[in-house]
Amino acid sequence: MIAISEHPMPAQDYLAWEAQQPIKYEYLNGEAYAMTGGTLAHNDIAVNLTTVLRTYLRGTGCKVRMADAKVGITEVGPFFYPDILVTCNERDRKALKIVNHPCLVVEVLSPGTEAFDRGEKFRQYRRLDSLREYALINAETMGVECYRLNERNKWELTSYLPEGKASADLLEIQLTSIGFECPLSLIYEDVQLSPMAE
């Protein structure tokens, strides 16, 4: 990640500036960072999960949004663009620019951003009182990791990793924050993983 300026930018300046830019920028600690492009596998995974979540959430009062939906941790940032989010908060349903109360955030991992998604970004997302689940989906090999807030207010990890091609159809991933489950294979349907990964 490369910041676009040498000097810290106030959050309101970032919001006004970014609205005029042709690409998206995330914002952390006074710095704006250009969003990098993902792979086709990354895109296909995000589309697959968004599609099934859209159908599942219809009529529930919850809403799924994709990569163009900005999440604000506070009014002054940080601001991120997760690959997928779900919010069940009425204030977010009426929001025009920024989602502030997601219950589920999903990032599809890219080699260039994986460390940031696992580390600092997750640390910032945990500041959201509404967040109950953070899912990381691998775009190079089949696998999903879900971090869930338990009843003791601690984040627990559940991994969904298939043992072979057949088990991807049998392995059910759960997104407990919204009561959703589906076969792991559905998330990877028609996704071309790299030959080395397979």
UniProtKB/TrEMBL annotation:
Concerning InterPro entries, the annotation shows: Nuclease_put_TT1808, Restrct_endonuc-II-like, Uma2
Can you provide one Gene Ontology molecular function annotated for this UniProt record? endonuclease activity
Listed A to Z, the keywords are: Endonuclease, Hydrolase, Nuclease
Top-level division of the source organism's lineage: Bacteria
Domain Putative restriction endonuclease span(s) in chain numbering:
12-167
Name the chain's protein.
Answer: Uma2 family endonuclease
Organism from which the protein derives: Vasconcelosia minhoensis LEGE 07310
